[in-house]
Design a protein that fits this description.
Largest sheet: 6 strands, parallel
Order of helices and strands: EHEHHEHEHEHEEHEHEHEEHHH
Strand order of the largest sheet: 2-1-3-4-5-6
Number of strands: 11
Structural class: alpha/beta
Helix content: 25-40%
Distance between the termini: 15 Å
C-alpha cells in the first residue's frame, strides 16, 4: 500500500521542491503538495494558514508530513502534526539562517534532515534524529547540452548576497574579472537559461560560504550539466564526492588563477574531471534524494 505524504513546501517555478516532489512520486508515494507560502498569502495570515494546515491534516490523514525549511510556520504547529503523522523537516539552507524559530522546529520534529553537512553538527544539539542527505538537482533542467559551443572561459552564476557569510564572493569576482578577459558573472537566471550558460562555459565556479558548512544546490546543478567545476572547499565534502576528481578545489584567488590557467589550456583534463563529477552526481538525482529520505523512516 502506498504511503501518503503531505509535502509542506513551496512550489513556485524555480523551487527545488518541485523536483523533490517528483522524486517522491517516482518512487511510489502519493504526494499532496501544500504550498504553505501561497496559502499564507491567500489567507493574509500565518496564523490562519497554520489553522488551515492542521485542518487539512485532519481531513487528508497523511502518513508522513514533510516540511521544507518551514520558515514562518509556528513551531507549536509541529506538536499538533506529531499527533497525526511522522514529521520530517528538510533543511537545505546555510547555517546563518538557522534561527531560534528553526531551533524550536528542530526540537519538536521527529526527523531533522540537512542538505548542508556542516548544519548537522548544529542540528544534533537539539534533535538526535538529525541526518545529512545530499541535495538534488532538477534533472529536467540540469543536464548536458553537448551541441552548445563553449564560448565562455569562466562563469559564476549567483547573486551577491550582502550577508557577511558571503563576503568572499565579491573579492573573488573582482580578482577573476581583473585576471581573465572572458569571464562572466551572471545574476538572476534559472531553469533552462541557467543550464545553457553552464553548458556554454569551460569553467563554472562555486563559492561556498565563509563558514565552509557546505555547498548549495548550485554545485549539484553544475555537475548534473556535466560541467567542469572549480569550487572553494567545505566541511565533509568527501562524504559523497572526491575532491580534485569530481571537481577542482581552490582556497585563494592566487590558487584559482593558477589552476584555472592550467585547465583552460588542458581541455582533455577538464573533460576527465567533468565526466567524473557527472558520473558521481547520478547518485543524487531527485529519485535518489527521495529514496534516501524515506529510507530513514521506519
Amino acid at each position: 500500500m502506498k504511503k501518503n505524504i503531505l509535502f509542506v513546501a513551496v512550489f513556485t517555478p524555480n523551487s527545488t521542491n518541485i523536483s523533490q516532489s517528483r522524486g517522491l512520486k517516482n518512487i511510489g508515494y502519493n504526494v499532496d503538495e501544500y504550498d504553505f507560502r501561497a496559502i499564507s498569502r491567500n489567507l493574509n495570515s500565518h496564523t490562519k494558514r497554520d489553522i488551515h494546515l492542521i485542518n487539512h491534516i485532519k481531513s487528508s490523514k497523511p502518513d508522513i508530513i514533510l516540511f521544507s525549511k518551514a520558515d514562518g510556520i509556528n513551531p507549536d504547529v509541529i506538536d499538533e502534526c506529531n499527533k497525526y503523522a511522522t514529521t520530517i523537516l528538510w533543511y537545505m539552507d546555510a547555517l546563518h539562517n538557522f534561527t531560534p524559530q528553526t531551533i524550536r522546529l528542530v526540537q519538536k520534529i521527529n526527523y531533522f534532515i540537512c542538505g548542508i553537512p556542516g548544519v548537522v553538527y548544529e542540528g544534533i544539539k537539539y534533535n538526535q534524529n538529525t541526518f545529512f542527505i545530499e541535495q538534488c538537482d532538477d534533472d529536467e533542467f540540469n543536464y548536458p547540452m553537448d551541441n552548445i559551443e563553449k564560448t565562455i572561459d569562466i562563469s559564476f552564476i549567483a547573486n551577491i548576497d550582502p550577508h557577511p557569510i558571503h563576503s568572499n564572493r565579491q573579492p573573488y569576482i573582482d580578482f577573476i574579472n581583473k585576471n581573465f578577459q572572458n569571464f562572466q558573472h551572471i545574476n538572476g537566471i534559472y531553469g533552462l537559461e541557467h543550464n545553457k550558460i553552464v553548458n556554454s562555459s569551460k569553467i563554472n565556479i562555486n563559492i561556498c560560504p565563509t563558514d565552509k558548512t557546505g555547498a548549495s544546490v548550485r554545485l549539484h546543478k553544475l555537475l548534473a550539466a556535466k560541467s567542469f567545476v572549480m569550487t572553494t572547499p567545505w566541511i565533509d565534502m568527501d562524504i559523497n564526492f572526491t575532491p580534485n576528481k569530481d571537481f577542482i578545489i581552490f582556497d585563494s584567488p592566487e590558487e584559482f588563477k593558477e589552476k584555472a590557467i592550467y585547465y583552460l589550456n588542458n581541455p582533455i583534463h577538464r573533460d576527465i574531471i567533468r565526466t567524473n563529477g557527472y558520473n558521481t552526481i547520478q547518485n543524487h538525482h531527485p529519485n535518489k534524494w527521495a529514496e534516501n529520505i524515506m529510507n530513514l523512516i521506519p
